[in-house]
Amino acid sequence: MSVNEKYMRRCLEIAKNGIGTTAPNPSVGAVIVHNDRIIGEGYTSPYGGAHAEVNAIRSVKNKTLLSKSILYVTLEPCSHYGKTPPCANLIVENKIPKVVIGVRDPHEKVAGNGIEILEKAGCSVTIGVLEKECREHHRRFLTFHEQKRPYIILKWAETSDSFIAPIKEHRNSKPEPYWITNTYSRQLVHRWRGEEQAILVGTNTVLEDNPKLDTRLWKGRAPIRLIIDKNRKIPNGLHVLDGKQPTIIFTSSENQNKIIKNIELQYIESLSNYVLEVSKNLFERNILSVLVEGGAKTIQSFIDENLWDEARIFVGKNVFKKGIKAPILQGELVREKYILNDHLKIIRNDKKYHI
């Protein structure tokens, strides 16, 4: 491992601390090194706050060392005014002579401009250190700006005989989830919810399970709830209409007159191609990532359009024999693990859809 790779790995480690809080900004990690010793580091603050480079520079106690130091950062420093001033300008102002970057920023307001500012000021810039790893870490942000759509994660649990839900006769009399996985797997799912900007389910999942779609089992920000309810079948009184977190109802119904606090109705025209229409709408809303949790029909719609990036599939030990069949997809198995008796498989789509 080279010296540059060593410090870039540290950048990636601390960048994880911002996942789930920075969107629509990326969760960047930055490290400042003087004479092979870290003198400052930082990661992106929650949205609206300071970027990683700013936090790293602020953390340096002896600012005179900055003019003799190297700044490592997972993503190209920004070059435009947004919620905060440009990081590239701050680096120049502090006379940091060398910057090592993991991956270029594809955002149309950056796209090499940050690098240009640094180089014009006489800064030595190295690009592409641990680029593959940095692209993996920033996959939500990069997918959003390169493919003009959110990063889409499919998640479901299935029995050992490949059913996602039992037949109706086996369900409880009131609408609540029928669990396939154990408590620890469910807690992990709540952690995942906190890492993504939004969570999406279809009408049947809401009617059958009455889910809350929050992060009550894990400390984290509750995602925006996205509900596909084409014909406005969901009645008041279910959890998704409690107004406790921002919720968008995608519907093709002309009945748009129900107004509930924190609930927005979004009209969609196409019933046959709603997945693409929803994805475009989320891009316009600056939503970088979506966790699609169900049900089988909704998940299969994303698979059929090849509009997904990652699938997280739990396989439980129980057997239903009859019920709703689990979705079917093809992709690359990149990771698997056991959570007690639950088998978790992570699959990536190597034939992504470009909008």
UniProtKB/TrEMBL annotation:
Active-site feature positions: 53 (proton donor)
Q: Which InterPro entries match?
A: APOBEC/CMP_deaminase_Zn-bd (IPR016192), CMP_dCMP_dom (IPR002125), Cytidine_deaminase-like (IPR016193), DHFR-like_dom_sf (IPR024072), Eubact_RibD (IPR004794), RibDG_C (IPR002734), Riboflavin_Biosynth_HTPR (IPR050765)
Residues forming the CMP/dCMP-type deaminase domain are 2-125
Listed cofactors = Zn(2+)
Explain how, and how many, cofactor molecules are bound: Binds 1 zinc ion.
Chain residues that bind NADP(+)? 157, 179, 205, 209, 295-301
Protein name, entry field? Riboflavin biosynthesis protein RibD
Q: Which organism is it from?
A: Maribacter algicola
